[in-house]
Amino acid sequence: MKFEVLTLLTTPEEEQPLWKEIWSAFYETYINDSTQYEHLDIGSGSLISVRTIIFGLFIGLTLASFGAVFNKRVLGGFVRRLLREECLSPETGKTLPELGIADKLWIRRAVRKSVSLRRVVRCREEEEALSAQESAEDADKGHRSSRRRSAAFRVDPDQHHFYIPEDMKYLADVKFEQKGTTWLGAILFIFVMIAALIALLVALPYILEIVNDFVGAVKPSSGSENILN
Fold this sequence. Notes:
Number of helices: 10
Largest sheet: 2 strands, antiparallel
Oligomer: single chain
Strand content: under 5%
Structural class: mainly alpha
Strand order of the largest sheet: 1-2
Radius of gyration: 31 Å
Shape: elongated
Helix content: 55-70%
C-alpha cells in the first residue's frame, strides 16, 4: 500500500491545459492534415501545399496592412510637416531639428533608406553632391578607364536639409494622405483575417474533397485510355 502511494506521488499524470488540447486537435486536423487525394497532387509530400499558400497570403496581407499604416501615419507625418512648413525647394529645405522631429527614430532611418519616402522627398546636400559628380564625369568624358566614382552619399538627418519639389507637392499629398488608415483599423483587420483563416482551414478539407471528386469524375479512366489506344 505504501509503495502504491509513493508511486502516485513521484509520477503524477499531468493533464494538458484545455487550450493546448484544443490547439493540438486543431493542428492535427486542419493544419497538419496528411489526407491523400487520389486525383489531386497536393498530398502531404507536396513541396508547396495549399495550406502553405494560404498561410503565405495571410502573412503577406498582414505585413501589407501594417506597412500601409506605417507609410501613411509615420512617414506621412513627416511629408505633411514638410508641406506645412512649405519646404518646396532646396532653399526652403529644413533639417529634422528645425522641423522639431529630430527624436523620431523611424524618420531618421527613413530619410536615409526608405525608397517610398525618397520618391517625393529630396535632400539638398545629396542633390548638390550628385550634381557635382555628374559635372565631374562630363568633364572627364573619354577617360572612362581612369574615372573614379565618389563614395556613396550618406544623409545626415541633423545637418542636411529636406524638401519636396514643387512639382511633386500634389503627388506627395495624395500618396501619404492619412485619411482612412489607423493602427486600430490595422489591428481589427488582422483579427478579421485570423477569423477568415480559421474558417478557410476548417472548410478546406471539404473543398478539396469536392474538387477531388469532380476531377475524378471528369478524368478519363485507365480502361477508356486502353480502348482509345
